[in-house]
Design a protein that fits this description.
83 residues; alpha+beta; Nucleotide Exchange Factor Grpe, Chain A, domain 2; 3-stranded antiparallel beta sheet; 19% helix; elongated
Length: 83
Amino acid sequence: LEGVEMTLTQFGKVLEKFGVTPVSSIGEPFDPARHEAVGQLETAEHAPNVVAQELQKGYLLYERLLRPAMVMVAKPPVGDAQN
């Protein structure tokens, strides 16, 4: 397991050396130019239209999008079912 983690870390450093960086997602406002929404998540932890969960990491080559991040976007809870 340690060997796999070390390989992944070094591979990430090589990608960064060549200008490939991950798209920041969780807690960021949903941006259709960088994120692909695959669903909505009812949560009070995040404001509406903010990325609440990242399902697949996205990547940029300098400022050009290579792959959008697949994300779940926050929406306000409908209501408390116990009331």
